[in-house]
Every structure is written in structure tokens, then in C-alpha cells.
Design goal:
By secondary structure, this protein is α/β, with parallel strands linked by helices. About 45% of the residues lie in helices and about 15% in strands. The chain folds into two domains: about 170 residues, Glycogen Phosphorylase B (Rossmann fold); about 210 residues, 3-Layer(aba) Sandwich (Rossmann fold), CATH 3.40.50. The strands form two sheets. The protein has a seven-stranded parallel sheet, sandwiched between helices. The chain has a six-stranded parallel sheet with strand order 10-9-8-11-12-13, with helices on both faces. Helix 4 runs antiparallel to helix 7, helix 5 packs antiparallel against helix 6 and helix 16 packs across helix 19.
Length: about 450
């Protein structure tokens, strides 16, 4: 029997892996046992959704990190020199005024371009990382393969390190489109890596010292829902969100409090534009909160044309980063995009989801009616991130830099939904890769073939 470890310690892994055909295909594979690791306080939730005769769910205390973890996370994150990392470093300097730390980060960025420096850091990291953190699970289940779907997560790092010490096969995955360019060098390099698209493959080769033959391009498993599941009838969906099925819907996807505090001003701008006739009277707004954050509402008060959508399940009061999205939440997102005319957002991956439905996205690159002192404190900085640049190169995202540009873009798309359709398709082709509903199966079959 093949035993495969799967870590699910970030809510997006539950959504992208366990609630997709990755899990279902592996669960049904002959002579296979799956051991899923989740945060201990979510154990009942995971067992309720994923338990089966050949599936074991174990809870761990997540991210019990040491000083060694903090040190190597900082060093490896600094090893990559690109726009995204530089913006992060400048923001840290503005926040902490720690010039020695900033200069050290810039030095490491240059030094980290040397492969032997990267390899030395990984060797020392593996040599000094905490031993036996998860050794008991390895002794108990004796896995044939460890699948770490989030190679930058601290606990995935420890699972990979233990597997490396025992010479057990490892498969890693890049959780999101921005992880490599934002998070730097992964601490433990897996034997094989699965990624969504060719862009991430090229980044894995360039930044993570992966051999091209060891990187498998598979697509985005969470988008399989969009092709495989049928949409809720329009009247039923609009009843669910308490809005009018006879009016047009605009989705606004706020960034959340972790990034800035002016989301509410964009909502106010949209509300006022409808009230004063700059936008049609027959539009209404679904404000989809980020599944891992809260949104400051400021002075904004939603009226009957706004629905505030909090799509995720919370486990700890006030702790937003550990919320989970289940299969029903994914279907709700699909319905929301299907019935929306367009999406207003920042540099969110919702742009990719919208493009999958042929829906346009309008990118917000301004701070409501505030004027920030520099770009590093403005939402405009997100358009300079490396992963955003790949979207901008397609021409499929309409960037707006003030209130008038935002209203103009929204109005244009309401009048002509096919505007810029060809470039929006480029987003699908470059980011989703094969949009065929089989990404989950491709991942599972790749893992099974190596176990």
C-alpha cells in the first residue's frame, strides 16, 4: 500500500487541493492511504469533510516556529532581487526605520543571485532545523511520499525537511501566483514541483534552482469548479444575496485590512456614482470580502443596492487568516462571477477567476480620495509587483488611477461587455494554462505516479 502525506495548513490549500479532484482522485486510487495534516483546532472540521476508510486526518499545532525558522525565513526571502521584494523591503524601512536591516536585505538580494550561496543556505538550514518535530508521524505511518502544497509555509518546510532526512520522495506545490516572487527562496527544495502555469515554472527555474524537468505544469485545480458544476438559477442566487435579479450586478473585491484601509472609500465612490447618475440606476453591488481578512468599513454605509458577502467559515473569533472555504463557498463564488457584469478589484487573483467567466476586471490603483506621501504606502504599488506585471502585459486589466477613470472604465464595460475580450482571454491562457476541468486529476495522477 502507498502512503501519501498531504499537508493542509493554509485555507487556500483546503480549497485548492482537498475540495477538488486532487483529493478525490487520490482517495480512489488503488492500494493508497492518505494522511492529511491540519491545524489541531480544525480537526473536527477536516474529519467531517474528508474522513474515509483509507484517509486519516491528524491535527498538529501549527507554526510553532523557532528562532532558526525566523532567521532562515528572513534570509531566504531576501535572496531574491526583484520589484516585489524591493517594495517589501522599502515598506519595512518606512515602518521600522531600521536602516541596517534594510541594507542587509539589499546585500542578501545581490548575494542570493549566486547559486552556490542559495545551496549553502539550504544545506545549513536543513542541518540546523529542529529535529523530530514531526518524526513521530513518519515513524507511525512510514510514508512513501510527502506532498507539501505550500512550500513556503513553515510547517510544510518541516515536513519536507523530515522527508529529506529519511530519503522519502517529496512533491511540492506553489500555492499562489505571487508566492515565488513575493516570498523568495523556498527553504527546502522538493524533489518535484507542481505549478499552475508556465510563468510559475520559469520563476521556479530562475529563482528556486529547480531543474525544468522536475517542474510539472498542471493548471489551476480550483477553476475546475467553473466547468464541472452547473450554476444556480438566477432568481435563486439573487434571493440568496438579497438583491434584485432584474438589475445588473457589479462585484467589488476589497483588498482587506492587511494591505490598506481605503477599501470603504472605493465603495463610497461607487455608491455615489450610482446615486448621482454617473452609473446606471439599475446596477447593484456584491462586495465580496477577502476569505482571509476583514475590511474596514470607515464611514461607508451600504444601502439596499449593496450586499456584503463574507464567504468563509471562521474558526477563531477575530482571526481571519485561518478561515476556510468549502465546496459550497466555491460554488457561490462561481455563481457570483457568472452573474456579475464585471469585477472591480486591485491586483487580486479574482482577476483570473473573472477572466475564466469572460468577465472584465477594473483595477484600482488609487487610494480613494486620499493622497499618500509615496508609492510604497499607496495601493498603486501593487501594480508594480512582478506577478501583476504578467497580467498587465496581456492588456486584459483596465488600470484606473483616480475616481473619474474608475467610473469611466465601469461605464464602458457596462455598455460593451465584450470590450477588450481578446486580451482578457490572454489572462486565461497564461494563468490558468489548460482550462479544461482536469487540473485536479493531473496533479493527483502526477503524485500517484511518484509514490
Amino acid at each position: 500500500m502507498k502512503t501519501i502525506f498531504i499537508t493542509s495548513l493554509n485555507p487556500f490549500i483546503t480549497r485548492n487541493i482537498l475540495f477538488t479532484d486532487v483529493f478525490e482522485t487520490l482517495r480512489k486510487a488503488p492500494a493508497t492511504r492518505l494522511v492529511i495534516f491540519c491545524p489541531d483546532y480544525k480537526l473536527d472540521y477536516f474529519r467531517g469533510h474528508f474522513s474515509a476508510p483509507n484517509v486519516i486526518v491528524e491535527g498538529i499545532k501549527p507554526q510553532q516556529i523557532t528562532k532558526q525558522d525566523v532567521f532562515f525565513r528572513y534570509v531566504d526571502a531576501s535572496f531574491i532581487d526583484n520589484n516585489s521584494r524591493y517594495i517589501h523591503q522599502r515598506r519595512e524601512l518606512l515602518r521600522d526605520k531600521n536602516y541596517p536591516r534594510f541594507l542587509a536585505s539589499r546585500f542578501l538580494a545581490r548575494a542570493g543571485s549566486l547559486r552556490w550561496i542559495q545551496r549553502l543556505a539550504r544545506w545549513v538550514d536543513l542541518l540546523t532545523i529542529q529535529k523530530n518535530k514531526f518524526a513521530g508521524f513518519f515513524d507511525k505511518y512510514r510514508p512513501n511520499l510527502v506532498f507539501a502544497p505550500d512550500i513556503f509555509h513553515d510547517d510544510d518546510v518541516h515536513f519536507l525537511a523530515e522527508a529529506k532526512r529519511r530519503k522519502i520522495k517529496t512533491v511540492g506545490m506553489v500555492r499562489s501566483w505571487d508566492n515565488i516572487t513575493n516570498k523568495g527562496l523556498c527553504r527546502v527544495k522538493p524533489d518535484k514541483l507542481v505549478v499552475n502555469n508556465e510563468i510559475l515554472k520559469s520563476e521556479a527555474v530562475r529563482y528556486e534552482d529547480m531543474r525544468p524537468d522536475d517542474v510539472a505544469v498542471v493548471g489551476m485545480p480550483q477553476t475546475d469548479y467553473y466547468l464541472k458544476e452547473t450554476r444556480t438559477p438566477r432568481t435563486e442566487f439573487f434571493k440568496r444575496i438579497n438583491l434584485d435579479p432584474n438589475k445588473r450586478l457589479i462585484m467589488f473585491s476589497p483588498h482587506g485590512n492587511r494591505f490598506h484601509d481605503t477599501d470603504w472609500q472605493i465603495m463610497q465612490i461607487l455608491k455615489e456614482a450610482r446615486l448621482n447618475g454617473e452609473l446606471p440606476e439599475n446596477v447593484q453591488f456584491l462586495v465580496r470580502f477577502p476569505p482571509n481578512d476583514d475590511v474596514a468599513m470607515g464611514n461607508f454605509k451600504p444601502d439596499s443596492h449593496f450586499f456584503i458577502d463574507r464567504p468563509a467559515k471562521m474558526f477563531q473569533e477575530g482571526i481571519y487568516r485561518d478561515q476556510e472555504l468549502d465546496g459550497l463557498a466555491m460554488l457561490h463564488l462561481a455563481d457570483s462571477l457568472h452573474y456579475s457584469e464585471l469585477v472591480v478589484t486591485y491586483n487580486s487573483s479574482i482577476i483570473i477567476d473573472a477572466a475564466a467567466f469572460g468577465k472584465p476586471s477594473v483595477g484600482v490603483a488609487f487610494d480613494g480620495w486620499e493622497k499618500k506621501p509615496d508609492i510604497y504606502r499607496s495601493v498603486a504599488r501593487f501594480m508594480d509587483y512582478d506577478h501583476t506585471q504578467h497580467i498587465l502585459k496581456t492588456g486584459g486589466l483596465w488600470i484606473t488611477r483616480d475616481r473619474n477613470e474608475l467610473i469611466n472604465a465601469v461605464s464602458t464595460y457596462l455598455k460593451n461587455p465584450k470590450h477588450n475580450l481578446e486580451n482578457r482571454q490572454k489572462i486565461v491562457d497564461s494563468q490558468i494554462w489548460k482550462f479544461d476541468g482536469r487540473a485536479g486529476k493531473r496533479i493527483a495522477e502526477f503524485i500517484y505516479s511518484l509514490a
